[in-house]
Amino acid sequence: MAAKILANLIVMGSGILIRGMVQAYRQALQNASKTGVAQETLQNAVRRGSKAMTEQEARQILGVTEQSSWEEIAKKYDTLFERNATNGSFYLQSKVHRAKECLESVYQKNQPGDPSV
Amino acid sequence: MTRQEAALSLGVRESPAPGKVREAHRRVMVANHPDAGGNHYLASYINEAKDVMLGKTKNSGSAF
């Protein structure tokens, strides 16, 4: 008899607990979407998924325009890379490197052989 | 920009000692200054990183 009551109590208790947790999770999700945390996470996930930076961002980072020649880009890259290696930050240096890689592939597509200069 | 990204950009910890942020900002800004081979995009990026580290801006609604 006592065991039956105890089992009943445990089942009921765990049911209430689970329902409460689901509600709390839903509320947390709502709060996150209100403050924009979820959207930022989503954007980060998308960015990480695609991995490569856009050509536009790469051009902005190196400070070159659509009309710039590959030599110009290489020159800017060398300057920025060197300066960030000596007393800049490693993160920005890698950003510069990624930007060059991105533009390299673009230029290789347009004129085969040119970026290897 | 997230705080983590800002800390990486300036080369400091996510909760740096006071004064470290300004010092790091100065160092990175000198390296990437528009007058010396840098460009305005990187300069504004560094400025924003500093603002994030000093808690002057909210992390949401960033252009970066």
TrEMBL record, chain A:
Subcellular location: Mitochondrion inner membrane
Family classification: Belongs to the TIM16/PAM16 family.
Membrane topology recorded in Swiss-Prot or TrEMBL: Peripheral membrane protein
Organism: Helianthus annuus
Predominant subcellular localization, coarse grouping: mitochondrion
Annotated signal sequence range: 1-24
InterPro entries, sorted: J_dom_sf, Tim16
Name of the protein in its database record: Mitochondrial import inner membrane translocase subunit Tim16
Swiss-Prot/TrEMBL GO biological process terms: negative regulation of defense response; protein import into mitochondrial matrix
Signal keyword on record: yes
Superkingdom of the source species: Eukaryota
Keyword match Membrane: yes
GO CC, alphabetical: TIM23 mitochondrial import inner membrane translocase complex
Keyword annotations from UniProtKB, A to Z: Membrane, Mitochondrion, Mitochondrion inner membrane, Protein transport, Signal, Translocation, Transport
